[in-house]
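Predict structure. Chain length: 137.
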Amino acid sequence: MNILMMTNTFSPHVGGVARSFQSFTNGYRKQGHRVLVVAPEYENMPEKEVDVIRIPAIQHFNRSDFSVVLPIPGFLTSVVEKFRPGIVHAHHPFLIGGTALRVAHTLELPLIFTHHTMYEQYTHYCASGTGRGSTPN
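Prediction complete.
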């Protein structure tokens, strides 16, 4: 089966979600599935990656090590259609997760969502009610 994996965090970013995502990807490939990864651009990312599509992204969002993908309509269309996924696996409900939902809906594919993060622990990266972002303590 061709599996389209979509994530907000991927190498060279280091963290639990990126590690879990890599474990899923490696496991699917060991079982004989072809996996196409869709992930944001990062500084110092590998130059040559097999079956990885990088989405343009804002680096160091709100002074973090996080890259925020930029929604570019039609950017993935031809690549995804050529890949012909049988399923879409999203690893985030936001940002790239919205794109995963649209891809699955448009291509009439099943969508799997894996929850990796306790988002309430990251609210300090969001804007406060005063219109200014807060910084972590």
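Summary: The chain has three helices and seven strands.
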